[in-house]
Design brief:
With 592 residues, the protein is an alpha/beta fold. The protein has 23 helices and 10 strands.
Amino acid sequence: MEKLKETICLIDGLNTEAQEQMEQHLNSLTKPLGSLGILESLAIKIAGITGNTKPEIDPAMVVLMAADHGVTAEGVSAFPSEVTQQMVRNFITGGAAINVLSRAANASVQIVDIGVNGDLQLPGVINRKIRYGTNNMAQGPAMESAEAIAAIEAGIETAQAAIQKGAKLLALGEMGIGNTTASSAMLAVLGQIPVEQIVGSGTGINTAEKEKKANVIKRAIEVNQPNPADPIDVLAKVGGLEIAGLTGIVLGAAAARIPILIDGYITAVAALTAVRITSTCVHYLIASHQSVEPGHIFVNKLLGLQPLVNLNLRLGEGSGTATALPIVRSAIRIANEMATFEQAGVSGSNDGSVKGAAEVAVASEILPTEPTLQIATRHEFDGQQKQGVYHAIYSRRDIRSFIKHPIEEEKLRRIMKAAHHAPSVGFMQPWNFIMVRSDEIKQQLHDVVSKEVEVAGRYFEDERSLLYPKLKVEGILEAPVTICFTCNPTSGGEHVLGRNTIPETDAYSVVCAIQNLWLAARAEGLGVGWVSFYKKQDIRKILNIPPHIEPIGLLSVGYTHQFQEQPILETVGWGKRIPLDELIYTDKWGKQ
């Protein structure tokens, strides 16, 4: 456990100075700004990971962890468990897909036996065996908590040894018959997602077998009752040894500021486990591809990662990492080898509205480019962009239940930037944003809100009096961040253009900032819940807000299990949306 604790303490955030320098360098290269899209965002991210404005990712190494799973006794796989050992032999002789793809990608492959159910006397296999496979998780815990921790620490030590040998990028691979079952069980618990939505075909099972697999997973979760807030408990009860080892690889690489290239479903669940252990390591992850396993989509969303390619892969082994590695290498070579305008003697853009690469590249971590005009005089977005805007508006919900998963700092920064770009009367920008992350302060906010929720319930009668106690009206303790939007009426001076006759327009401006954040959050897959049960004096006291500053709104932000088709108050029968035509008058108030 000491090794794990020491490693966690070493994991830090991205080097933002190196990122800014890399962005400036990319903007100086002989190309239109942001024109290399994801390649530019990759280079910026890797600069932040390594703290180096001339980063290197070679030598790159695929670390493939192998282990067996006791749950195969339930018939959840199309292949028998002995295939794990047979495939390890295939890896060593160089005949597997990962060997071929790694040779093509100029990456080495390291095979680690962390839990194969048998003794492997094979040259080239690193023996870090914790035990001979896991127990059948459908009947009890897959392993002891101490064994899960030992496997994580074995992964940390494996990462450290690879880095000492010179590896500058670690790619994740795995082999273990039955490991999609374990991964699905872990994801169902960690993500609080229904099992049916995430169970796939794995090694090629049919529909009936897939239903059986789902039932086995449900039984394993019911028997073991893993704690969603404790990733090691989840790992021990329904996980696998190779998943634990890969979790350690992620932690060990992040502690050494080494980029981590994730493969498919199983390795992504391992990465999610590492992030749940310490959220900062999410910054070091790069998603190589999107597999056809349905659960993989959920994991990538929970991690906030955009896969580099989608080739309908479902093999595992690290095959996706080897396929995507040349893309990552291209991003670094662009940054390190491409000429600047000055070096090439090429005239740069004379457009005064220069944007940085991080603002114009098209990627999940980057805001979209300026819209292409359909009709120059009308300045319309194209059809797809319009659809995105309206989808964010119509599918936004007031979220009350959150998944205990951290928000990636880059993503949080983007939605805060959207809030800051709201319109404000006289451009006074009267807002400040208090980011509440402290559990202690969240508890204080929760307590004053709970008190007011109880008081408010006394005002409802008849059917609503029965419905009100069943409503969940806030999720402050669950959400990773709650933001207090405040209004400073003195911003912009005593006389603000456009505010003299309607003083409260400064507060309206803050509401525009809230709206911007809410829509941006929906586009990013984040839920937002507006908390409106509190007395302002209580919030001022807790958050140390000066008397002249108005707390306009508390908004909890985080990932959520589901965005409902309809607002929850409409679904439960509290009320219905008023027809639009009833609200539109012509020329004067009222229907004429």
